Amino acid sequence: MARAREFHQARWNEPVIFELSRRGERGMLVPEAEPGIRERVGDGVSRLPDKMIRRDMPALPEVSQMRVLRHYLRLSQGTLGADLNVDVGQGTCTMKYSPKVNETFVRSPKTSELHPMQDDSTVQGALEVMYSLDLFLREISGMDRFSFQPGGGSCAILAMASIIRAYHLVHGEADTRDEIITTIFSHPSDAAAAKVKGYKVITIREDKDGLPDFEAFARAVSPRTAGLLITNPEDTGIFNSKIAQFTALIRNVGGISGYDQANANGILGVTRAREAGFDMCFFNLHKTFSSPHGCGGPACGALGVTSELADYLPAPVVEKTNAGTYRLSCDLPHSIGKVRCFHGVFPAVLRAYAWIVSLGAAGLEEAARIAVLNNNYTLKRVTDLAGADAPYAAGRRRIEQVRYSWEQLYRDTGVTSEDVTRRLADYGCHLWQSHHPFIVPQPFTIEPTESYSKDELDEYIACLERVVAEAYSNPEIVKTAPHRSVVHKTDDSWFDDPAKWAVTWRAYLKKHGSEREG
Amino acid sequence: MSDTVHPYIPNSVPEVKQEMLRAIGASSTEELYSDIPEQLRLRRQMNLPQPIAAECDLVRHVMSILAKNRTCDENISFLGGGCARHYVPAICDEVNGRSEFLTAYAGEPYEDHGRFQALFEYQSLMAELLEVDVVNVPTYDWGQAASTSLRMAARITRRSVALVSDTVSPERLGVMMNYCTPALRIIPLAHSRATGMMDLADLKRKLSAETAAVYFENPSYLGSIETEGDTIAELAHQCGALLVVGADPSSCGVMAPPSRYGCDLVCGDIQALGMHMHYGGGLGGFIGCRDEERFVMEYPFRLFGIAETSVPGEWGFGDVAYSRTSFAQREQGKEFVGTAAALWGITAGVYLSLMGPKGMRELGATIMQKSQYAAARLSEIPGVRAPALDAPHFKEFVVNFDGARCTVRKINDHLLAQGIFGGHDLSGDFPELGQSALYCVTELHTQEQLDRLVDAVSCAIEGGECRG
Hints:
By secondary structure, chain A is of the alpha/beta class.
């Protein structure tokens, strides 16, 4: 039987880098201009007018090279990456394995030393990868063309909202269509990015099954509807079987349906945006398609649209010529312009390409099916725990993730979801509390993906089990956690008081420097 | 995929799969999809290429495609304009390649303490370079940072017009135009044809009670340095607008940071600070400002703050003013926040820690010397003007070929044949500059390479085949 392991994370109590500064130390030397250059132009800086010269030096720390290395390696040890833990506790984010071999592709100078404005003839390899991934994602989604420019999922949502706006502008309805509909269990950015594009946001709440209330949705749809931005399955992991009726209603009133498929990990090869009636979708290449999360980017929200909307995509897109070469094309008459500079995050595109090539069609579907099996297995095990519950749709299967609740645990013991997340750190696990607002009380969200073995899932559940047992027997140890993590419970009063908060070391010294000396 | 268990999918092992199915009372994985209506099911295998499952075959396949690229280290590149080849210290790659940082995401400030501290330090190091008190966890790039700066200014001033210098990067302007529509109206500001600096008369004409912000880049996209920043700040402030300046952090060791001449919100890109270009994937955006609540509360992005913990002497970290974000309040939050470029923030922190004050000063000086040398040598070629704008420049500068009656396109073709990536052709975006190219010189260029460029350009012009 799997057990919670005796764990202690690295605790170096590492100072802030500024505290390591010693006048005169150097971490890196910079090449000097050659004598011939100095002879010709002098010191270079004197060319600036006096008031534009920085005579003093920036107050950066002075630290020798190995000490800088050690500092950051210690900080890395105080970070629990997916490579080190059974990272199933960050539901909705698809913390799957990012194959190491793909890092060698990204780190090759053949990738890293490309400038985005190089002549097309010199980047044929990069363009081929982008073009091929476009073709793959067309097949996976049923859409007709992809752009890799969005720098993350939220950026792709912004691009979808921008396309909705541009489409209605072209069709003379930009002024009359001022509403975008989303749902409460869709990502916060589905609402927020729509607002950025000037839309009034209508958020549909869940029905008793946890799905978006279809009656409320039908009432919200009107000639003012510009579009729909929705996830499916939503954060609950329950598949919305009426999804085609949602998109049909939007279509009937002349709106555009955008599918937030940031996480599509449970349905690859099983069901697609096209058949569900969507006009657009996007995939987070850093979720479903294995590019690592990098502490929060760089990333890519690969945006796909139907042929009807292809001219609205951000420019440029990659085309294949009759001669079999590849080129960047800006021939997009209704393009929304740009949502990120240049061509997006090419390393993410390359990793996704390699991941798909490695697995093929059957492998992709197997990944999805195992992710769903792992999820339903975890669902069974978690709901068997005292104090835990999976609200809504009792007895139904879930797709890739489940939003759970510690409400019963809280009622029984006073231990909150936040307390549990802190205590789990003591067992080398991570658990995320879920997106706000907390519709599900004391929420947590687990998404096992296909990457972890049954034994590893059992171990994670054993850790949950252990913390639950502690909550019932010794709640204080949970409430005061962590005890074996990198640091202890933080004083949160520092974060919301303008007189106290410090976003930088210099702000800290200004506000708290005297206390420090005292 | 036959009976082979793919290395990425452990529970494909038939016995394990069966055991798990049994545990949940299902006979097959198909049963788990019972909520998906039949008409939505894809009842065929996707049409994708045959897999290349063995890792060694995959390496061969992918590397054979990448081999078709011709890179900036195999050639001599003078491309800049928002992304440039600088030296990347080995430790930058070491740290951002660490599994812990590479594969972490959104853990709590406990098990992910190191992520929080590294990003807090990044913010702090940038703040010293820029002389501001607040810097965000990186957003996508400079284009996004400029866009959000303008929207922040609009919310702070409750106004809706941004005056934007017409020498900003077309790439960034494209991002700004989309992102700011419909909340803001962007009105271009003219520049002096001779110097590239802002036309102050045009600024005075256009400033009004509706102006939320004045935005220019320093150095500009065209490389020229704006020396009247203080005057522009004064004019903007007089009418209640904020000054937003885009800055290249690699210049801040030698150039006065914008906060010194009255800038309220400084933005820019961190690619130069330890990131490889990655075909443009190495970008990351920052916004810096004073520590005033009315500014801080308008940031959409994450701001990591320092704090005490229950153990004396221990540093803790967490989100400052989280309630302002879309994570907390959906559309009631400020714009939106999501996955952007955090790993590059950590990397830029490593870079600045290594460089220190002297490194940043020497970097700036070396770039200015080499860049000025390249311009001076190019201007020796009959018919070539460099820099074409009569203003000091940092790493980029405009080279004009009108006097030689050559097109940039033909010159660049000629250079390419000799392993040189010539400067970016400006004739499309800035037709008023004639046949001009944007050249970028950094600390990585050697005198020998710069001399080779001059010889190659001379040769191209003298040969006569580059005539437009």
